[in-house]
Design a protein that fits this description.
Blueprint lengths: L13 H11 L1 H7 L4 H22 L5 H14 L5 H9 L7 H16 L6 H23 L5 H20 L1 H6 L7 H6 L11 H20 L8 H20 L13 H12 L7
Helix pairs in contact: 1-2, 1-3, 2-12, 3-5, 3-6, 3-7, 4-6, 6-7, 7-8, 8-11, 8-12, 11-12, 12-13
């Protein structure tokens, strides 16, 4: 489902934001039910902003460059020239959204518009930090933190989810002419044709990297002032995609890994019963 940038008409977009989350990201929609009422609406509105920009860029929409430019204009000069900027402007009246994180996200969108050049694992870490780690930091700003270590953990959790996305969507991305795995890593595992070669060793390596980031991110969940259970639930449900990739033979069937609704419900229950230890 595509979300489209439209002219500024105020910030009464909550109903639309709810619909988008329900249609596009069931995992986050389920986890969002656990958020305290005091922050839930603002988290959903932030999701609408970031998802809109990501969809425009990912789908190659002609309006994407202007949407990213409008975001950058708001970041640097507080100019409200788009719906997304209007929502962010409103959110910043209530939360200290870090401009550096928003700028990093905007740069990540520009990376995608140009086609990211991912040669090394460090390059991939930078890309993930921009498009997803920055999102984790923005979420932490809305939820509040009780320990400054939470910022690094929030970034790590976002990066873990992005690396999971990359593994889940390898074939879909290749169909769109994109590869987000580091070229040096592909060379290290002797992968010259990602579409046809065995991926087991490669995926094991990449899953281990993602799992390490999940561990780091989950360790910071108790440092949040609000919404710790919701974030823990989202993390454990998303992490289960990695387990589905393993169960599916590390991409052998070329099927997109999907976590069932029943499995998500069970994992959310586990998260709710473990308020002090999330990993």
């Amino acid at each position: 489902m595509s979300t489209l940038a439209i002219p500024v008409q105020g910030t009464g977009y909550l109903h639309e934001a709810e619909q988008v989350m329900q249609s596009v990201s069931r995992t986050f929609a389920v986890a969002a039910r656990l958020l305290p009422a005091a922050v839930r609406d603002d988290v959903v509105l932030l999701y609408l902003v970031l998802r809109t920009l990501d969809d425009l860029v990912d789908e190659g929409d002609d309006r994407a460059p202007a949407a990213v430019e409008a975001l950058e204009s708001w970041i640097t000069s507080d100019l409200v020239e788009s719906r997304e900027a209007a929502i962010l402007d409103d959110l910043c009246r209530r939360h200290p959204l870090p401009r550096a994180s928003l700028a990093a996200f905007a740069q990540g969108m520009r990376d995608d518009l140009a086609g990211p050049d991912i040669v090394t694992e460090d390059d991939l870490d930078v890309y993930c930090s921009r498009v997803a780690g920055a999102v984790g930091e923005m979420m932490a700003a809305i939820l509040g933190v009780r320990d400054d270590r939470a910022w690094r953990a929030a970034c790590a959790l976002g990066c873990a989810m992005q690396r999971t996305n990359i593994l889940r969507d390898v074939d879909e991305d290749m169909g769109n002419g994109r590869v987000y795995l580091a070229r040096d890593t592909l060379d290290r595992f002797g992968i010259t044709d990602l579409a046809s070669q065995d991926r087991t060793a490669l995926y094991r390596d990449q899953i281990a990297r993602a799992d390490a980031l999940f561990d780091e991110g989950l360790a910071g969940v108790p440092m949040l002032l609000n919404g710790d259970r919701a974030i823990a639930a989202a993390a454990v449900m998303y992490r289960e995609i990695l387990r589905e990739i393993e169960r599916g033979g590390y991409g052998a069937g070329r099927d997109r890994a999907v976590v069932s609704g029943r499995r998500k419900a069970w994992l959310m229950g586990v998260a709710l019963m473990r308020p002090a230890h999330w990993s």
